Amino acid sequence: MASALEEPLNLAPVTEGQNGTIGANGTSSSTKSQYDPNFTDNVIKATGPKANKRLAQLMPGLVRHLHDFCRENEVTVEEWSQSVEFLNECGRMSDDKRNEGQLFWDILGVESLVDEITYKVAADSGEKPTTTAILGPFWRPNAPIYPMGSSTILKDQGGDVTHMHGSVTDFTTGKPITNAEIDIWHTAPNGLYEQQDPEQPDMNLRGRFYTPDSGDYDFYCLRPTPYPIPFDGPAGKFLKLLDRHPMRPAHIHFIISAKGYKPVVTQIFDRRDEWLGNDSVFAVKDSLVVDFAPKQGDEKAGFDLKYDFKLVAVEDAKNGVHGGTEVTSA
Ligand SMILES: [Fe+2]
């Protein structure tokens, strides 16, 4: 059966009365059509007294916004059916190597938005802890653990080998953090993560490193490459319908975690990248843009990148120090 999204949506305005006969569900004072004025309230009131507390808090607003959206735009049954098929397609395409649902939220900017909401900036702080960015759909658990100084490159596919190094410290005290886990992942020069590419070894360009007492880390990886998010599925079709490109600026993903500290999920971006101001998932933040410097005297790497991670202790977070984020530059 052909996908509901293979043909562009017909977005021509619906003529008044076409989708608003008396007795149809819903009404809104903001539209001229006559809908049942009690419909939305009835749906909200259906929630029972033993409902999950957070859901009971969230659902009235969600239902109201959804219903108003449908009324204001006079959404037709055909259009709604396409949205159902779209979500089903996202589910069918997702498995342990592909997360199409998350990709969809990403291209709508929702993961970046909730990331910003979750990690508010300490407003009075001139210096900030390491800024967060979205996890994205390509993280895999249980990446191999390597000793410091190792390489995550399991197969030579070209690219600029980079020696990345720095420290993991306590944001408040500046002291080094021992046994912090640095989980890193990025694409190969062909723009594909290893789980997307049968030519790459399993867990290529991924790794976990644990800091010694000094809190210092170093390893070899690649200077990242810009890549398109997968556009062979429903999220890609959606981008096409919106006349949007799928490109992400070159970046490396990290999760930095340590006992007693708030974990930081983040990405760093190559300043040279042409897509920096136009990220398809809206994740770029100024403090995460870095400069790769040419490196001399290291036969393994042609580039050098120093980056320090600053974590907030859980106790400090309780006292108002927050993991940082900032307005996105994209
Ligand atoms: Fe990525």
From TrEMBL:
Entry's SUPFAM superfamilies? Aromatic compound dioxygenase (SSF49482)
Give the molecular function GO annotations.
catechol 1,2-dioxygenase activity; ferric iron binding
So where does this one cross the membrane? Answer: none
Which residue ranges are recorded for the region named Disordered? 1-37
In Pfam terms, one family for this protein is Dioxygenase_C
Question: What spans are recorded as compositionally biased (Polar residues)?
Answer: 16-37
Q: Which GO terms describe its biological process?
A: catechol-containing compound metabolic process
Domain Catechol dioxygenase N-terminal, by residue range, is 52-124
**Cofactor(s) needed by this chain:** Fe(3+)
In which family does this protein belong, per the annotation?
Answer: Belongs to the intradiol ring-cleavage dioxygenase family.
- What protein is this chain from? Intradiol ring-cleavage dioxygenases domain-containing protein
The scientific name of the source species is Cryoendolithus antarcticus
